[in-house]
Amino acid sequence: MNRTLAVLVAVLVLVAPGTPLFAHHSFSSEYDGEKTFTITGVVAKVEWTNPHVRFYVDVKEPDGTMANWNLELASPSALARNGWNSRTLKVGDTVTVLGYSGKAVPTRGAARSVVVADGRSLFAGTAEDPDSQPR
């Protein structure tokens, strides 16, 4: 009985640390690295959280309707290394986003760069960003 318990504990100790890795998605599972978009709109919401910052932009479509885009950025720490902070995007700011289209939802994307309200263009991608990979 004690041997069985010891084996079970050993397995849990070895497997448990890797479990969170399975919860994180890969770029290519959600986004199309070959299909880019550029949108301009008004920031509706910002979620400055791990593992990725997310923000939402209201974009006026050619037919006059409004579309709410759901955009993923890198982690807060990666963004900070590229000049971002939690106040870079504010609700009501007009921004232009260059990014990669979502595979499942047309108004979802991974932002590569964002032209923020003060005119700066900031890198918003991650190491998984197709353009950050060697060719």
Account of the protein in words:
- The longest helix is centred in the first third of the chain and has 14 residues, at 2-15.
- The chain has a single domain (26-132), classed as Nucleic acid-binding proteins (OB fold (Dihydrolipoamide Acetyltransferase, E2P), Beta Barrel), CATH 2.40.50.140.
- It has helices at 2-15, 19-23, 27-30, 76-81; strands at residues 31-47, 54-60, 66-72, 94-102, 108-115, 121-123.
- The protein is built from four helices and six strands.
- A five-stranded mixed barrel has the order 1-2-3-5-4.
- 21% of the residues lie in helices and 38% in strands.
- With 135 residues, the protein is an alpha+beta fold.
Q: Which key phrases capture this entry?
A:
single chain, 135 residues, alpha+beta, OB fold (Dihydrolipoamide Acetyltransferase, E2P), five-stranded mixed beta barrel, 21% helix, globular
Could you write a compact summary of the structure shown?
The protein has four helices and six strands, in the order αααβββαβββ.
How are the SSEs ordered, and which strands pair?
Elements: H1 2-15, H2 19-23, H3 27-30, E1 31-47, E2 54-60, E3 66-72, H4 76-81, E4 94-102, E5 108-115, E6 121-123
Parallel strand pairs: 3-5
Antiparallel strand pairs: 1-2, 1-4, 2-3, 4-5, 5-6
Strand content: 35-45%
Count of the domains: 1
The name of the CATH architecture is Beta Barrel
Shape: globular
Query: Mind summarizing the main beta sheet?
Result: 5 strands, mixed, barrel
SSE string, helix = H, strand = E? HHHEEEHEEE
The CATH superfamily is Nucleic acid-binding proteins
The CA-CA distance between the termini, in Å, is 55 Å
Low-confidence stretches: 18-23
Nearest-angstrom radius of gyration? Answer: 19 Å
Mean pLDDT: 84
Oligomer: single chain
CATH topology call: OB fold (Dihydrolipoamide Acetyltransferase, E2P)
- Cross-sheet strand order for the largest sheet: 1-2-3-5-4
CATH class term = Mainly Beta
Give the proportion of residues in helices. Answer: 10-25%
Structural classification:
alpha+beta
Number of strands: 6
- The tally of helices reads 4
